[in-house]
UniProtKB/TrEMBL annotation:
Pfam families: UDPGT. The chain crosses the membrane at residues 474-495. It is found in: Membrane. It catalyses: glucuronate acceptor + UDP-alpha-D-glucuronate = acceptor beta-D-glucuronoside + UDP + H(+). InterPro entries: UDP-glycosyltransferase, UDP_glucos_trans, UDP_glycos_trans_CS. One of its GO terms (cellular component) is membrane. This is UDP-glucuronosyltransferase. The gene is Dper\GL12048. PANTHER family: EG:EG0003.4 PROTEIN-RELATED.
């Protein structure tokens, strides 16, 4: 009997340590970006929430398969202008690039909020418990949280930057946090830190003078009876899920409600490959190279000269090449190249006979290559891709080339170096080992923290006081003035008074000399 009581007591104690169950919540996820990568980042996460009994509504820009407990609102109009909008990102100056990005985000928000199905949802009177917002600096979409009276949770597929840090009240020193659009890493020289600070000031100025005022006009247009102002919405994030991990990038400070979930999209058990791809990989005596430019940049739209360089170089290789190419035909395709419009990328990288990943350097692709221990050859195009490829070079798991100034010799030499020197694969395998050494998978961590915020009604206790301080208070400029400035001011006043007193004392003349002068 005593043993029975001990056994029952042990079970109750163990159950007492589990988190309180989060009742089925209504969750709305907004994914307005037309590139599929951002949705891939959270797809397993959203399905995981639905599998746990939550009602998940997803606004995205794709056709979707029916999934239990998930409702899809497909705002497809933006896809018609996707490539045109990406072409507009080409700019000669930073200010022009920022103008292009801001204009792109305005169009994305407008296409989404003008969608008939989205408007129907907004006028339905329906409410949600949580709004999950992709943090691409589109407050007009963040506004859905106040519209549906929901807790606002953000997610960022590229990790954090100064904008996200400022909204959460996090410390983000520019001395080792490079601009997300730069080719710099956390190890910067003096000149790089100087450039980093300059670009930060330009971005801040543009954000305050151009981007946020445009977003506020849009916010006021779509939410004329808003419960909160746009500034209040920007300050209302309860939690942010970051698509990064310190083992994949670099250590940096985070607040308790900023959760690293890099690799969230990777299934830990790779799925079987289609038979034709499986046979192509297994039949490659010298291994396989996988080449993909991601979901935003399409290989079929590359300049003909660049495509010819790739084709001629691949044709010389003894390895086989899997090329994600968006057309049915690729003129001049060598016999050792297999093209498809879509490949199951993680499942391919999981294959031991795949030796190298030629990539655009997007963060999801970089994480997948590291997870499976593959070296990379980066051909970055925009945004964080340059920084990701620069890090691959510095850490030693990859090399980088300029996609639009590609030549056969450089490309062939880079491929040969990555395949023949074991240090690249070794560095990637070491990072993979560090990343995999976690107490729980990223997917479980993301779901746990989301349900934590639901259980604790927005978890206001996680909010940092730094969000309520102005610039002078946050950096203690007022207290420093009292502690340092006033004593220095007092010393300066004493010196000034002393100088005046010394200047006022004139030496007395000799009375006898004065008499002689009079005579």
């Amino acid at each position: 009997m005593r043993i029975l009581f001990v056994f029952i007591g042990s079970i109750l104690l163990a159950l007492g340590g589990l988190p309180l169950p989060a009742e089925g919540a209504k969750i709305l996820a907004t994914l307005a970006w037309p590139g599929r990568s951002q949705y891939i980042f959270v797809e397993n996460y959203l399905k995981g929430l639905a599998a746990r009994g939550h009602e998940v509504t997803v606004i995205n820009t794709f056709k979707n398969k029916a999934t239990p407990n998930m409702r899809f609102i497909e705002a497809l109009k933006v896809q018609e202008f996707h490539q045109q909008m990406l072409a507009e990102l080409e700019a000669s100056t930073l200010w022009q690039e920022l103008n292009a990005i801001s204009g792109l985000e305005e169009k994305i928000a407008a296409f989404t909020l003008d969608d008939e199905a989205v408007q129907k949802l907004m006028k339905s009177g329906e409410t949600f418990d949580v709004v999950l917002a992709e943090m691409i600096e589109v407050p007009a979409l963040y506004g859905m949280a106040q519209h549906f009276n929901a807790t606002l949770v953000g997610f960022s597929s590229y990790g954090s930057d100064y904008r996200i840090d400022s909204q959460l009240g996090n410390t983000s020193p520019l001395s080792y946090n490079p601009s997300i659009m730069s080719p710099r890493t956390d190890r910067m020289s003096f000149c790089e830190r100087l450039t980093n600070h300059y670009e930060y000031l330009v971005e801040m100025l543009h954000r305050q003078l151009v981007h946020l005022p445009a977003m506020e006009r849009m916010y006021n247009k779509y939410y004329p009876n808003a419960r909160q102002t746009m500034d209040e919405v920007l300050d209302s994030f309860a939690l942010v899920l970051l698509g990064q991990h310190f083992s994949l990038s670099y250590p940096r400070p985070y607040l308790p409600n900023m959760i690293e979930v890099g690799g969230l999209h990777i299934a830990h058990k790779p799925q079987p490959l289609p038979e034709d791809i499986k046979a192509f990989i297994e039949g490659a005596e010298h291994g396989v190279i996988y080449f993909s430019m991601g979901s935003n940049v399409k290989s079929k739209d590359l300049p003909q000269e660049t495509r010819d360089t790739l084709l001629k170089t691949f044709g010389k290789l003894k390895q086989r090449v899997l090329w994600k190419f968006e057309d049915d035909q690729l003129p001049g395709k060598p016999a050792n190249v297999l093209i498809k419009k879509w490949f199951p990328q993680p499942d391919i990288l999981a294959q031991t006979n795949v030796k190298l990943f030629i990539t655009h350097g997007g963060l999801l692709s970089t994480i997948e290559s590291l997870y499976f221990g593959k070296p990379v050859l980066g051909l970055p195009v925009f945004y964080d891709q340059h920084m990701n490829v620069a890090r691959a070079r510095r850490v030693g798991f990859g090399l980088g080339l300029d996609l639009y100034n590609l030549n056969e010799q450089d490309l062939e030499e880079a491929i040969h170096k990555l395949l023949s020197e074991p240090s690249f694969a070794k560095a990637s395998a070491q990072i993979s080992e560090r990343y995999r050494d976690q107490p729980q998978p990223s997917l479980e961590r993301a779901i746990w923290w989301t349900e934590y915020v639901i259980r604790h009604q927005g978890a206001p206790h996680l909010r940092a006081t730094s969000r309520d301080l102005n610039f002078i208070q946050l950096y203690s400029l007022d207290t420093l003035f009292v502690l340092v400035g006033l004593p220095l001011l007092l010393v300066a006043l004493l010196l000034k008074v002393s100088c005046r007193l010394l200047q006022g004392r004139k030496p007395k003349g000799c009375p006898y000399a004065d008499k002689l002068k009079k005579q």
